[in-house]
Amino acid sequence: MNVNSIKRILIVGAGTMGHSIAQIYAQAGYDVDLVDNNDEKLIHAIRLIESNLNILAEFKRVYNEEIPKILNRINPTTNLKKAAENADLITEVVSEVPEVKKSVFFQLDKYCSEEAILASNTSTLDIFKIIKNINKIERVITHHYYAPPHIIPLVEIAPSRKTSKEVIDVSIRIMEKVGKKPILMKKFAPLYIVNKIQNAITGAMYELITRGLATPKQIDLALKTSLGIKLPVVGQIQSQDFMGLDLINDILKTRGINVNFINDKIEQGHLGVKSGKGFYDYKGRSEQEILEKRDRLCLQILELLEKINAFDPI
Ligand SMILES: NC(=O)c1ccc[n+]([C@@H]2O[C@H](COP(=O)([O-])OP(=O)(O)OC[C@H]3O[C@@H](n4cnc5c(N)ncnc54)[C@H](O)[C@@H]3O)[C@@H](O)[C@H]2O)c1
Question: Domains in the chain, please, with CATH?
Answer without folding.
Answer: 3-184 (3.40.50.720), 214-307 (1.10.1040)
